Amino acid sequence: MKKKSGFTQMFLVVAIAAALTLGIYSFAAAHCDTLDGPVVQTARIALEKNDITPLLKWVQPEDEKEIRAAFQKTLAVRIKGAEAKELADMYFFETLVRIHRAGEGAPYTGLKPGVAVDPAVALADKALESGSVDKLVDVLTKAMAKGVRERFQETSERQKHTEDSVAEGRQYVKDYVIFTHYVEKLHGIIGGKHSGH
């Protein structure tokens, strides 16, 4: 019994340290890094149902053993009271997301609040929930069209004055590069030249 109590105390110290350092991490946007994201949401359900199976899809097969061990430790501590449950859950969320990100070759910089989720990603999640992609397509199409039109207009106006002076010519080249790179990146994304995280 004494050994188990020592383990619980050590686990709680580690969990508290992890929870306290949350504020130190940078807030780089990454959907699966958020407390409202799908990885943590799946983990919450798994812990409540005491069933790890649904969340194993978020980790690589070689990481399953580590996640199973963390899950069992978390379940053992959660029953110690509300405070212990909160700390144990945070420890598990941090562990799960860190391992998930490593499995994708992406850096882990801590858990973020849900507000860190890109609005387009939030719309993508809503599309999956509702079964309709129409609103997402509409929002993205309008944003893309607006971006192309604005950059085109600026470049087109500069083009009219490109021969007025060297300074005007250089400003045109700058706008031209911005416009063509924007279009090139959009085309790359549309053509499937993109990566995960």
Essential attributes:
single chain, 197 residues, mainly alpha, 2 domains, 66% helix, 0% strand, elongated, disordered N terminus
Which SSEs are present, and which pair or pack?
Elements: H1 2-20, H2 38-49, H3 64-78, H4 82-103, H5 119-130, H6 134-159, H7 166-190
Helix pairs in contact: 1-4, 2-4, 3-4, 5-6, 6-7
Structure description:
With 197 residues, the protein is mostly helical. The protein has helices spanning 2-20, 38-49, 64-78, 82-103, 119-130, 134-159, 166-190. The chain has 2 domains: 2-117, no CATH class; 121-190. The radius of gyration is 24 Å and the shape is elongated. The model is unreliable at 1-30 (pLDDT under 50).
Main sheet properties = none
Give the oligomer, counting copies of the same chain as homo and different chains as hetero: single chain
In terms of DSSP E residues, the strand content is under 5%
**CA-to-CA gap between the ends?**
45 Å
Give the tally of β-strands. Answer: 0
- Give the tally of structural domains: 2
For the residues shown, what is the average pLDDT? 81
Please work out how many helical segments DSSP would assign. Answer: 7
Q: Supply the helix-strand structural class.
A: mainly alpha
The geometry reads as: elongated
CA radius of gyration is: 24 Å
Percent in helix:
55-70%
